[in-house]
Amino acid sequence: xxxATATAExxxxxxxxxxxxxxxxxxxxxxxAVFSMVVATIxxxxxxxxxxxxWQTWALGGMSLGLASALLTTGALADRFGRRxxxxxxxxxxxxxxxxxxxxxxxxxxxxxxxxxxxAGAGVLAAGLGLLxxxxxxxxxxxxxTGIWGATLGAGIAIGPIAAxxxxxxxxxxxxxxxFAAAAAVxxxxxxxxxxxxxxGEPRPFDPTGAVAIALAMTALTAGLTSGRxxxxxxxxxxxxxxxxxxxxxxxxxxHVRRHPMLDLDFFRRPLFVASVSxxxxxxxxxxxxxxxxxxxxxxxxxxxxxAAAAVxxxWSVTSTVVAFMASRLPARFGATERLVAGLTSSGxxxxxxxxxxxxxxxxxxxxGLAVMGIGSGLANAxxxxxxxxxxxxxxxxxxxxxxxxxRYLGSALGIALVAILITGGGSGTGGMLSGWDHAAIVGxxxxxxxxxxxxxxALGSRRRLQQQ
Length: 469
Fold this sequence. Notes:
By secondary structure, this protein is mainly α. The protein contains 14 helices and no strands.
């Protein structure tokens, strides 16, 4: 091969990788925007349908249910049948489900559409990160790509509520869903220009029994956590949670005896994989859970408009976006695990700074804590994106992404339920809500620090074992 030929091939690979990064990044941003947009317009949606508070709970939690239920399965399907194929079909399904939500004639149809948006978004996230793992095999280029991917998570959460609130002013609550449905359709078309990504050699056979078991487990657990926000003692909540635990146990038993399991349980012997899933779970539990209630607290507790509350939330998400984008410039010796530990620790400090709110507090009281949490989220998101694809064999990149994001959104469902309990437990009225928020912020801080300590101990133990070998 001549030098000129090699240079031309390198340039072609670079252009292909950058196009993949652009499309996957935009799609990831869109999924998170669709995920978060509901908090800005849920009041108008409930009013339009004359729905009860129980329906509002399911509307807020519906997309988490779909995401947690489908992430692992769509990751396995992407590794088996082609990551671009699953990415394209999932983007198209996201466009369709979002359009159904926009045109929903009842609250029940709207909630169903939110669940379908989650399932479609799962395919976009799992297959998209798998595409990036293939386009950027290793080194600084992968660190940069996964950092940008992590940045789009924060950007999407910031854009969703603000865009939904602004678009609602030009029409009604449905306008944002129509716009995002169109954007998803455009991205599905753009994805057709990407190169297909499959593992070299014979891919892992698809495990339908395991797929059904994990889908049932995640559906029941997430639905149980959502139902619990209305009543933890109801027969429905108890049955869903018990059924979810049973299905999860069945999944572990199935995977243990399968010759070709969907999720190789030996992955949990890998310190990087343990760091990936536990870090994602803590991020969902301690940070996403807290931030999901912030707009409600600012509106009802500090008496600001929805748009103003979304702008305050942007101090966290925009900081997160910038830090994740810049994370690739950190020294190479500051690896993904170290960045994750630093990110969780910073998030814990920031969460503690959000406590001690009073009814006379200004929204500016929240800004320092949100900025510190944003630094933590940016470091953690960039690290988790890299760990998701680096902690598993190259042939299982989308599955690694699916496992990472499953942990994130199951943790989110648990975190949202936990924060709701703490806020409600603070007492009645504005004072009670803010007192409950203080408790939630303190608990979130503690969970982040505990997560950082656990992951740090896993990394330290791994290094010691390597030194002894």
